[in-house]
Design goal:
The protein has 2 domains: 1-13 and 79-144, no CATH class; 20-73, no CATH class. It is globular. It is of the alpha+beta class. The chain has helices spanning 2-5, 23-35, 57-62, 91-95, 113-123, 126-152; strands spanning 14-18, 39-40, 65-70, 73-78, 81-82, 88-89, 99-103, 106-110.
């Protein structure tokens, strides 16, 4: 979904959620997934209901990645994400650069375009490699717009106090 929010036309077919790993949050997530009739995505659709999976916060906490088929679409739940140099990324690491977006009437935290690119590079799945050129192009376009805004912004070192119009906030 983050690729769409950032303006990519190419769809990857699922939502990747790096979640806050607190017990309270994982409990709420498990409730939401159960409400969406979530089943683990496995080789054959008819195998999933036969698996002895208890969808609760303990199960989610014990798995770094779980992939689900729900009534609302496919959801990949990650409690940790391997990052550059073997560093593990957690929710708080990406939340710093994320911003809030309204998606179909709901507010969601969306990773920065830079973080989306980094995670797609790491995942290196065919669908991620397919969308990466478009994401990089969007990033370069966004960077060019930001540079243009910086060049046309007033000199903040001048004695005049900045006003609300002069302040630039990046998501």
């Amino acid at each position: 979904m983050a690729t769409i929010v950032h303006g990519a036309a190419l769809r990857t077919g699922d939502i990747d959620c790096l979640v806050d790993g607190s017990a309270e949050n994982l409990h709420r997530l498990a409730l939401a997934l159960r409400e969406l009739d979530a089943l683990l995505r496995v080789g054959r659709h008819d195998e999933a209901p036969l698996l002895p999976v208890v969808l609760d916060e303990v199960m989610l906490q014990r798995t770094e990645i779980s992939i689900w088929r729900t009534g609302a679409g496919n959801v990949d739940v990650l409690t940790v994400l391997p990052g550059p140099g073997g560093r593990c990324l957690h929710y708080d690491d990406l939340a710093e650069g994320a911003y809030l977006a309204v998606i179909e009437g709901m507010t969601a935290r969306v990773a920065s375009l830079d973080d989306v690119i980094t995670t797609k590079q790491w995942a290196n799945r065919p669908k991620d490699r397919q969308v990466l050129p478009e994401l990089r192009e969007l990033y370069q376009s966004q960077d060019a717009v930001d540079q243009e805004k910086e060049q046309s912004a007033p000199d903040h070192n001048s004695p005049a106090a900045p006003n609300q119009e002069n302040l630039r906030v990046r998501p």
